[in-house]
């Protein structure tokens, strides 16, 4: 067979496989709606969600999370309903990504990549200096659950020390744990509790799925069970870190395992 034809077929096959994982990517434009969540922003940048990030209904959001990261619909629906509560309109059925910037609803202090609301109103914008602190807890090419927990705990402690209005309430605290659990299960090995550091850095820094680095979405559906289990592991490692240092976390509620209504 002609080598050029072979190469053409191979490239076509690669592109076909790649398109099953991620669509074309385009950065946000001025006027696009974006959130404090790098994953949701990435889904808009890839076109899984409308690029403008506005007027998103349930089916659109659930379908995007299923297609992009293989999150099951019951868990996605829970997240959607929580997000819908940030819309300042009674009986809303749609939301825009910027609605999630509402402080102490889903958005919270001690973000891994955003400044606290006390210091800035731009929680939809990635902050390299904040993320640099987070990354400092990931010294190895592969992030373990313990390192992920250390990064989250480090941000909580820094925020508590520097922000006079610091708070992790009953909504923000579980969200703080869940955002760490989500990047571990969506981009890493669910059983091992590990994830390649470059995948996570690429997602946060570019708001882009790390397909070009070799990541592929989970071949099995990710459920509430997976999220709860990983959240519990993050909490356990956090408590271990605190006990080893002989200190007590300032946000006890943030260490509570996620389950049921608190997920």
Strand and helix layout:
Blueprint: H1 3-19, H2 38-46, E1 56-57, H3 58-69, H4 73-84, E2 94-95, H5 128-135, E3 142-144, H6 145-162, H7 172-187, E4 194-196, H8 197-206, H9 224-245
Antiparallel strand pairs: 1-2, 3-4
Kindly describe this structure:
It contains 9 helices and 4 strands, in the order ααβααβαβααβαα. A two-stranded antiparallel sheet has the order 1-2. It has a two-stranded antiparallel ribbon with strand order 3-4. The chain has one domain (23-262): Chloroperoxidase-like (Chloroperoxidase). The longest helix is centred in the last third of the chain and has 22 residues, at 224-245. With 263 residues, the chain is mainly alpha-helical.
Kindly report the spatial arrangement of strands forming the biggest sheet: 1-2
What's the CATH class, please?
Mainly Alpha
User: Which spans have pLDDT < 50 for at least 5 consecutive residues?
Assistant: 1-21, 250-263
Please give the count of helices.
Answer: 9
CATH superfamily: Chloroperoxidase-like
Say what the CATH topology is. Chloroperoxidase
Q: Compute the CA-based radius of gyration.
A: 19 Å
């Amino acid at each position: 067979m002609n080598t050029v034809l072979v190469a053409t077929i191979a490239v076509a096959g690669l592109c076909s496989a790649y398109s099953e994982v991620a669509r074309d990517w385009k950065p946000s434009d001025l006027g696009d709606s974006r959130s404090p969540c790098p994953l949701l922003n990435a889904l808009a940048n890839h076109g899984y969600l409308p690029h403008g990030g506005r007027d998103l209904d349930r089916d659109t959001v659930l379908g995007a999370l299923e297609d992009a990261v293989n999150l099951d619909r019951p868990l996605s629906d829970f997240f959607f309903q929580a997000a819908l509560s940030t819309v300042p309109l009674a009986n809303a059925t749609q939301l825009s990504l910027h609605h999630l910037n509402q402080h102490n609803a889903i958005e919270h202090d001690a973000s891994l990549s955003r400044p606290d609301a006390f210091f800035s109103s731009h929680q939809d914008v990635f902050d390299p200096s904040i993320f640099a602190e987070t990354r400092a807890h990931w010294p190895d090419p592969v992030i373990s659950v313990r390192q992920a927990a250390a990064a989250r705990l480090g941000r909580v402690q820094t925020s508590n020390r520097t922000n006079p209005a610091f708070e992790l309430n009953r909504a923000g605290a579980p969200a703080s744990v869940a955002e760490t659990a989500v990047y571990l299960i969506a981009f890493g090995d669910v059983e091992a509790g590990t994830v390649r550091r470059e995948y996570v850095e690429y997602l946060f820094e570019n708001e882009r799925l790390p397909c070009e680095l070799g990541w592929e979405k989970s071949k099995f559906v990710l459920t509430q069970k997976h999220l709860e289990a990983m959240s519990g592991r993050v909490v356990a490692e956090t408590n271990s870190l605190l006990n080893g240092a002989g200190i007590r976390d300032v946000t006890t509620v943030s260490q509570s395992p996620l389950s049921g209504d608190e997920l």
